[in-house]
Model the fold of this input.
Amino acid sequence: MKKLFIASITATLLFSASAYSAGSTHAAPASAASCSGCHGADGNSVVPNFPNLAGQHAAYIEKQLKDFREGYRKDATMAPFAKSLTDADIKELAAFYAAQPTK
Done:
């Protein structure tokens, strides 16, 4: 039973990661529209003040967005954007930006 559980979790994680594989042609999630102004449409910012999201680990992006949303991480610009995101939005954004190639 334990092996079956581990196998199913592994398969789920692999499927989730492959949904947005590197160089993915999947369209950006709708929630990414508000991100593109600062971070670029594909997560490669053209302004040095704003970090690149492209190629960043999905788990890191998820944690940071949740921390902004919950107020654990403070930033006057990011907080309003993050507050409007659901857990599903955050997961989708993280997978999308993680799959984008860096420039």
